[in-house]
Amino acid sequence: MNCNQYILEEINLQYSQLKEVVQCILHSILFQRSLGTVKPRDMTLDCVEFSYVKADDPTSSKNIEDKSEELLSSIIKRKAKTAQLSISFYEKRAKTNFFTTTTENVCWEQWIISFRLVPTMDQKTLFSQLTDSVNKIIENVNQDKNIPPIQASNQMPFPFSIQISGSENPGVADMVWNMFKPPQISK
């Protein structure tokens, strides 16, 4: 199975809006990939009157909270005006060597989200960008027929990882390589 890659349009926002918007986008993707008995939870951004739904899963919420904080810290440290992160979903596959069988995580879907920090942002424009992004997420998920077999019965049956891009201005070769190379999942 090949890794499907979805690149969302760059979202322009102010520094103070970044953490909330990152959480909104990541939760929207995870909610669409949640399977089984999912407890939806309605959320509203404080920075703009935008509502979205997230899966009420404490582990995923903690992971997203930590990664949004890490992205914010990275931007402060680098004094960056742009940021990029990806969320990748994995399938566990058996890998047989001569004498042993192990499992490996194989990426089957990756989402790339880019942000540009701007000095001022009209709330109407940010609302429109968020609406477009969430609609694009829903559209892509509904068209995707390439989902691996489900092997777990919990809300998040596929392991996932969230990676933050490390450089503000990567070279063209690095940028192309990073776009097509799924990040490794930590065990």
Automatic annotation (TrEMBL):
GO cellular component: Atg1/ULK1 kinase complex; phagophore assembly site
A Gene Ontology molecular function term of the record: protein kinase binding
Classification via InterPro entries: ATG101
Domain of life, source organism: Eukaryota
UniProt keyword list: Autophagy
A single GO BP: aggregation involved in sorocarp development
Taxon lineage: Eukaryota, Amoebozoa, Evosea, Eumycetozoa, Dictyostelia
Similarity section: Belongs to the ATG101 family.
Pfam families named in the record: ATG101 (PF07855)
Protein species of origin: Dictyostelium purpureum
Protein name: Autophagy-related protein 101
